[in-house]
Amino acid sequence: MVNSSKNDKQALSRSTDGALGGVMLQWRRERDLYSARWRRQGIAFLLEVSQLDANEVLNGSRPGDLLNLCAGLSKLCWPAQVTDGTEEEKVSKWAQLLRKPDVLAAIIDKLNGLFTAVADDDEAFNFPLEPTSSLIFDARALRAGRRPFSSLISPDTKHGLVQAVVHSAFVLLSEDTQGLMVQRCKREKCRGPRKAPRIFLAKRVGQDYCSRKCANAAAFDHYKETLGPEAFRAKRRVKTATISEKPRVREIGAEASPRTPSKAMAVNIGNGRITA
Q1: CA distances from 39 to 26, 29, 43, 45, 166 (A)
Q2: Angle at CA 55, nearest 5°, toward 51 and 59?
Q3: 37-69, pLDDT tens digit by residue?
Q4: What is the pTM assigned to this prediction?
Q5: How buried is residue 44: exposed, middle or buried, by Cβ count under 10 Å (0-12/13-18/19+)?
Q6: Where are the domains of the chain?
């Protein structure tokens, strides 16, 4: 009886440990999935910011664009100028800082340079740090079994603000494989805001075009190139002639589909009047 009870307790302990292990494994998977999704959303947002026009955001007909931009940046960046307060207060601080055209233009320009380097496989993107900047490394995390992290403290200046945004982009692009999804559209005639093929965040590995429109246009261009100019024009003439010769009248004996009377006509018919 003693041995049986002991064996039952050991079996129950193993079962409990296995269940807890499964729950922890599932929790870690969900955490990693959420983190990957959050990083992808952050990269997509900063990529969109890099393609903005500063004058249009500040002086355009849609004042909500600036507030949306500030709300997005407040979730990704914590510069020295925006550290304390509620979410609404942080958005308000961002709005005050970004109302200066040179600050917003500098953020857009630096982000565009970074994403261009990533999309075009450049060797490196060099961003000199501002004076009085400092790096902090969480040394206690190693012995505590946590993943160590480092943070960059930027100065309380407009250049420090730009540095904080660019550093956030560095972190998002380097911590996950989502950085590999930043691509430039392979269709030469595609035109983004910078008068060049658009930089986009691919949804899958091997996606060469930014949209279905560019993919279809590239396939059509390849089809014309494969046929050759003369063969393509000849085939198009034949197709045009076939369409123009197609009869447009209804065949003899074919009956037209009955027309459903409108509500007003139905009322008039019910009252003995056939007029619409």
Answers
A1: 20, 15, 6, 10, 15
A2: 125
A3: 888 999 999 999 999 999 999 888 887 888 899
A4: 0.70
A5: middle
A6: 17-175
